Amino acid sequence: MSDIRYDDRVALVTGAGAGLGRAHALLLAERGALVVANDLGGSRAGEGSSTSAAEAVVAEIRAAGGTALANTDSVADAEGAARMVQAALDTFGRLDIVVNNAGILRDVSYGKMSARDWEAVLSVHLDGTHHVTHAAWPHLRAAGYGRIVNTTSASGLYGNFGQVNYGAAKMGIVGLTRALAVEGASKNILVNCVAPAAASRLTEDTLTPELFDRLRPEYVASLVGYLVSDECTDTGRVYAVGGGYVSRVAVLEGQGAVFADVPSPERIRDSFDVINDLEGAVEPLSGPESVDHIVKRMGAA
Hints:
Blueprint: E1 10-14, H1 19-30, E2 34-38, H2 52-63, E3 67-71, H3 78-92, E4 97-99, H4 115-143, E5 146-151, H5 154-158, H6 164-184, E6 189-196, H7 209-214, H8 217-227, E7 238-242, E8 245-249, H9 265-270, H10 272-276, H11 287-298
Parallel strand pairs: 1-2, 1-4, 2-3, 4-5, 5-6, 6-7
Antiparallel strand pairs: 7-8
């Protein structure tokens, strides 16, 4: 089989200065993509800025014979997101691929979380993913082609102590991904989501040295590389990935309990084992499909 390549494709990668974003940008450029490498260059908590991170990965791409452009706008700023998309259009004449990877952490237990901690994390992760995608969307629609990969997290999918802000943002990204996949399908815009377990500055103090070395970002970049390729036809999916492990994550809906009339709280209590049972569960791929499932089950009453 032929190699997956991105010749003449233009890719925008956010948070591309280090870790996962750098790995994504290097892989895409190595295989022919023209890359806009965006990175604000701030701290892990989202403070400060620097041009060095974005410029370093661009220099690395160019040294290897690739083509790349550095951008240091913040994804949390809608105007900044518009500028990075416009930079791709002005420099390369098009935009085909968007990898939303930029992120920060402000971990703190919920009772001690300030409004600033909440807003900063959501503005980068959830709002940032929206700002960049929204700026790119009309151009992808006009071209009749687009590949978007968003970044969620196990903390969003399953929860984690001290990461209520991060988890809320990351699960919001899943909802954004699923809805965009439905809207983009008719225009050949595929939108998927990865939940990485990877060594990065966001995880460097939470992983053992051995695990940090095993969870290299390149493992995640390979999955992203497939998802943004012409060969991928899946959309609206979420994938857990890390250290050589790749698996689809699904939102399932059970067969549930069905009541012919309004049940009392006691009847709900008495049926709770059936309500919680996921045997025979289905996977709705949109809100209307979930409603259809409910309507069908109502017919069993």
